[in-house]
Structures are given as structure tokens and as C-alpha cells.
Design brief:
This protein is mainly α and 660 residues long. It has helices spanning 2-19, 26-35, 37-44, 55-76, 85-101, 108-135, 156-175, 182-198, 202-222, 226-256, 264-268, 279-292, 305-310, 317-347, 353-372, 382-399, 416-450, 454-463, 473-488, 493-502, 511-523, 527-547, 554-566, 570-593, 603-620, 625-653, and strands at residues 47-49, 409-411. Helix content is 72%, strand content 1%. Helix 9 runs antiparallel to helix 15 (353-372). The chain is globular and about 85 Å long. The termini are far apart.
Amino acid sequence: MKKLLLFVPFILIFSFSLLYRGGISLHSHLIWAALLIIPAITLLFSKIAVMQNSRNRILMYIALALFVATFLISIRFADIQGYGIYEFFTYISGAATFFIISNISFSQKTLDKIFAWLCAIAAIIGFAGLLFYMLLAPNRVFATFVDFSMLAVSFPNAFALFLLMAIPITIYKFLNSAAENFKLYFIAGVIQIAALILTFSRESWIVAILGIALAAVILFFKTKHGKQLLIFSAKRLVPVLLIGILLAYACTMVRGLKYETSNVYEKITFQADEGKTSYTDRTSLFWNSIKSIKSGLIFGEGPGVFQERVNNHQHNLFLKIINDSGFAALVFFLGFLWILWSSAKSNYKNLPQYSKSMVLVLGASAGLVLAQNMMDYNLNFVSNSLLFWIFLGVIASVIFQKRFAFGKTEPGYKNIYAIFAALLAILLLMVSIHEGFYKIDYVKGKSLYKEGKYEDALKKFESAQSLIFKQDTPYLIGKTYYALAKEKGWEFFGTKGIDFLAQLPKNEKTMKTYILSGEFCLLSPAKDCLAWAIPSLKNTEDYIEKNLNPFKNMRIRYDYYSSLYKAGKYDNLKMLAINAEKFLAGYQNVVERNEQLTITTENPSYALKIYDVLVDLAKKTNVAHEKINSLTLAKVRLNRAISREKKKYEALYNQPAYEE
């Protein structure tokens, strides 16, 4: 019964995070933290394995505690506060999970059952993904919400990471399964491999291939009877791999009976990207992340600040840690991993055979996680992060058990970390209840806004300001005032909206709110409103020009140019016009090549609007007719290019390219 109490919360967390957007929601993180109270209190009144009080074990906990402490310090010194909430709970909850799991004695029977369930879950979800791919026709397995906004596996790269963790365990169970379970693990392996292929997660493919190659080399050269083991593994695994590939191909063929199929070669060669996965975007993010290091060398810029500024994460776990919390946090995190790895290496020979297998298999899964997160970042999903910390905790539990024998126990109340975990969980449970209460208003407000009931939505959003973690609530309030000002006139709603935005604390004035303030002032009859908005728009435009892809942020440029025009600052705008024309000519090339599915965003329409501003400026300042005609023709050419690409997209995907 005690074991059941211990594992129930982890089962609940894992299940909830799979069903609720993969655990990327704030609620999933809060529930993960809050439910730690159950295993923590259970530990206080149960028995745990006698652990070695070795120097390495103590240093490992110290390194992890310092990593979390440095992360908390970085929050205090952040330039923009209120972001990185997911990371906050991920690191705190992950560390607490590791502490709890690493001090529990796991019997071989218990671990076998846990891993059997994990294999089954991965296979069931993978099979569902194949059905989605064939019947609902997303371009990648689970790469659609299919009208279920809470569905977890709508994130193919995150699902691929989950499979990368599950596949080594499935392979281990398959290679060591009894005759009656052989077929089941064979089928589970085939489904998981097919699903991994059809996620089209190229970084996961690369990591899987490198992992297989490394395992083969280690077996061949570093282990006793390695050649025989390699031959045995190959005989069993090659059929699984081949049938998995054939299953993936068959699913693509079935999908192709009704829908356009994805070109695998174009995927592999990065010629068919979906907007956020191209290597050019990632190298740009890596470079921007490296440039940002100098602004927070020791304690970082603060959790989530880089992502808020760039509107995308770094796609690299280690760069993310440096940007968020500085080099100090990275040193402590790597130190924790190094101590765990070196302890496993030094104690490995003394372990019984089953424990050796567990260390190897779980170490392989954790290694694949870290490798994949060198090119992406999917540990913000509770379902993935929970498994990662549990796997590390089980490794620590196995290698630090005294005399490496299961079963010897003593009272668990001496573990002071359990008391801290319980206190933290109580606090977070209270926060979760508070957040859940006001989050209802937040969600209801978004629903009312979508229905066009702006005044009712505004009341809900204003109530949701009681949220501790406001997320984008201030922006939504401003956006609702803007909608009301357009619908019911500037007086009252427009002036109240401007007052609200002007009084926001600096930390809540994100790029989105600066853009919104400019658009408010474009509606305003008052000239002093533009005088207030133009400097903010200019600063935001300069930041985008230096740090982001300006072709993907056309709206702010249009707002800035329109504000200058409306304010009568023609000389300032004429100085920008030459570069604007060159910029728009470059953008036409982007549209014609349809880089990153450009026409599926709002940017093309704003590019055309910029041409309108330039034409109006030319007419207003009495520029020669030849120049006005040249600008008009350039706009026509861009509009034709946009129309052509939209038609191609609509023919290919049988849906509009972009809906306003």
C-alpha cells in the first residue's frame, strides 16, 4: 500500500501532463510541484534503502541545490520579471523529484512493471499518432490540434523526445523478454520506431542514429563477448527496424490515397520546413543566444527573458541555462551530471547484473535526452521532464545503495529534504488553487473575446489580473480595449486603453504591448498620443533589426512608418524610405521562395500596407510621378507573388493560407 501511495502522484502527474498539452501549461507544472507532497509525506512514515553517505553523493546533492539556488538568484536580477515560470517549476520540481526517487529502494520486480507500462503507453500513443497521421492528415505525427486544444501530443518534437526515452527501454525489454512477451515487445518496438520516423523530428533522427552507432562501437570493442552480443542484438533488432520503416511507409501511402504526402527527401534536406524547424532559424537563434551571454555572464538575463524578447526559445538546453541563469548555473548543472556519471562509472563493477542493465538503459535514455536538447528544447514539457528526473533518480538510487543490495531499510524520517519537499508542495498547492480560481476567468475571457463579446471579456480579464503569474493578461486587456475603441469609438474605451498601457510597470511592457500602444495611437485623434508611442515603436523596430528576423516581424515596421506619417514627420520617414524599398524588394524574394511558409502569416499583408504608406508619402511630398509609378508597380509585383504562393498552398493543403 505504501508503494502504491508513493507512485500514485507520479502516475497522476504523468497522465495529466500527457492529456493536458504535454504538460506545457502552467497548471501541469503547478500540479507536478503540488503533488510532491504525497511521496514526500509517504517517505516520512515509510522505510527507505540505506544509502551510502559517500562524498560523491553529498557533492551531487550540493551541486543540484546550488543549480536551483543560482536559478532563483537569476530571477531576482532579471531585467524583465514575471517570465520563465515554467522553468521555475520544472527545475524546482525536477530537483525535488530526483531527491525523492534517489532515496527509494527499487526491486527488480517493481522496475520491470514500471518499464513494461512505459513501453505500453509509448506504443499506444504511437499507434494513435499513426492513425491521426493517416486519417486526419497532419504533415507530421500529431502536428495538429485537430480541434482539441488540450491534446498533449500536438507537439511532434516533444513527442519524439518521449519516444527517444521509451525506445531504449523497449529494446531492453525486447532483447530480454520471456517467450510469452516477445511478440508484444516486438510490436511495441515497431510502432514506436514508425511513430518516431513520422514525427519528422530531424534532430531526434540524428540523435537516434548516433546513439545506435555508439552502442554498436561500445559493444564491439569495450565489452566482454561484445561481438556475440552485437550479433545477437542485430538479429533481433534489424527486423524491428525494417518493419518499423515499412510501417511508416505504409502509413504514408494510406495517407496519400486522400491527401498530399510529405516529401521525405525534402524534409531531410531542409527544403520543406514548417516555420520553426529550419536549421537557418536555429543557427540564428544559437548565434543570438551567444551574443546575449555578455549581458548576463554570471547570473544570466533571467528566466524566459530571451524567449520573450526573441519570441522563440534557444533550441539548446545549455545555451538556455546560460541565458537564463548564467555560467554559474551551467557549471553547477554540468557538475551534478558529471558527479552522477563518474559515480556510476566507478561503482559499476560492484553492481549486480540487473542493476548494471538498469544503469546502462536509463543512462542511454538520459543521454539521448541531453543530446536531443542540444538542437531543441523539449524538457519544458512535464511528461518529458518528469521521466528525465525520475530516470536520473533511479540511477542514483541503484549506484548509491549500501553494499548494493536491495531490501535493507531504516526509518525515512531522517531525510530532511522530504520535509522541505512537503513544505514546498503545500505552498505550491495553495498557489495552484489560487491560480486555478482566477485562471477560470482568464480562459472565459479569451472565449468571450473570440465570440466578439468584448465588454464581457474585459470584465473577465480584469478579474484575472489577480493571477500571480499574469502571463499575457495585460496584453489581452489592452487588446480588448483596442477592439472596443474600433467598434464603439475612441472616446472612453480608447482613452482608457491608453491610460492602462501607459501605467503598466516596465516589466509588463513587452514587445506585444509596445506594438499595441502604437496601434492605439494610430486610432487616436490626439497628436500627443503619437508623440508618446513613436519612441517606443522606434526602439522596438531597432531591436528587431539587430536581433530578430525583420521579415517575420513586419507589423511593427508598418506601425512605426504609419505613426511617423500620421504625425506629419515626413522628413524622418523620407530618410527611412530608401532602405524600406530595398527591404521590401528582399522580402519579395522571400515570398517567391516561400521561405518558412511565409504566406501563412500576417506579414505579407503588412508588407503591402508599407508600400501604401510609401506611395502616400511620395504623393504628399510631391515626388516625381515616375517614382510613384515605380512604387505602385513594385506593390503589384509583390501582391502577385503573394497571390501565387497562396494559391499553391491552398491547392496543396486544401485550406486558406492565412485567415485574418
